[in-house]
Structure formats: structure tokens, C-alpha cells
Write a structure and sequence with these properties.
- With about 160 residues, the chain is an all-alpha fold.
- Helices cover about 75% and strands about 0% of the residues.
């Protein structure tokens, strides 16, 4: 028997898939979320699905360039949506690009207050400025003196 899909049925399916994907993602089940988001994306391309799918692709399949492109596409459609910056930042963290991740998180917070971004920034921690700003952060003087001053408590 052939199933007749109306627009309403497709929208219900889409919303159901998105809800299941978001629940799986919240529980750390990125592979399950990936399946739901891929199916939802085939039904209709929605920016929220694209950015979540992008993170799942990066996490599960290490398709970083495709993930970045999807996330940027979502940002192009909804540049004021903080959740896209959150997913972009998480992708950068998977790629071991902490400075790019922090930049994405900060851009997201400029758009709107988004608790997952705040939680991620707290988890990453805030670095103090280098002791000698004229030297690179990883210079031996900055590292050694910074550790010493932190232990003494004057930083």
C-alpha cells in the first residue's frame, strides 16, 4: 500500500525527527542524533537541523570541512541564532582549534544569551593575560613566571 504524504504529515515527521535528534544529542548519543538529523535534512533543509547535523558529522565521521560548510550555511540563513555559533564552536574544538572555537562562542553570545555557550566557556576556562605582553604566550618567561605568580597568589 502506497502511503500518501501531505505537507502536514511531512511537517509532523520533520518535527518528530528533530525532537528525537535533539534529545539524542542532549544525551550524548551523537550517532543516533546523526541518523535523525540526516533523515530530517532530506525531508527539508532547516538551519537548526543543518548546524546540529554538522556537529554530528564532525563528531561521528570526522567530516570537518563538510561540517563547517553546513554550519556556515545555517549561519548564513540565521545569522542571529546563537545555537549555530555553539555548534560551530564545538566543531572547532573537535578539530583542536580552541581559539577559533572561542571566537565562535563569543560571536554567539553577542547575538543572544545562550546557556550552552556559557557552560562551554566555563568548562574551557578563562586564561589570564601573559605576564610579558610583548612576548608570545608560550615563551618560557611567560610560562614560568605566570606559574610562579599564580602559586604565590599575586595573579
Amino acid at each position: 500500500m502506497k502511503k500518501d504524504y501531505s505537507i502536514q504529515t511531512m511537517n509532523e515527521d520533520l518535527h518528530s525527527l528533530i525532537a528525537k535528534g535533539e534529545k539524542a544529542l542532549a544525551n550524548g548519543e551523537t550517532l543516533v542524533a546523526l541518523v535523525h538529523f540526516e533523515t530530517a535534512d532530506r525531508l527539508r533543509q532547516v538551519p537548526a537541523v543543518q548546524s546540529a547535523l554538522a556537529y554530528c558529522l564532525a563528531k561521528e565521521r570526522q567530516h570537518y570541512q563538510k561540517a563547517l560548510a553546513l554550519c556556515r550555511e545555517a549561519l548564513g540563513a540565521e545569522p542571529a541564532e546563537a545555537r549555530h555559533y555553539y555548534q560551530l564552536g564545538r566543531i572547532h574544538l573537535l578539530m583542536k582549534q580552541k581559539s577559533s572555537a572561542l571566537a565562535a562562542f563569543r560571536r554567539g553570545l553577542k547575538q543572544q544569551r545562550y546557556q550552552p555557550i556559557i557552560d562551554e566557556l566555563r568548562r574551557l576556562g578563562v586564561r589570564k593575560p601573559p605576564v610579558f605582553t610583548s612576548l608570545p604566550r608560550d615563551h618560557i618567561l611567560n610560562k614560568s613566571l605566570g606559574r610562579l605568580l599564580t602559586r604565590v597568589g599575586s595573579r
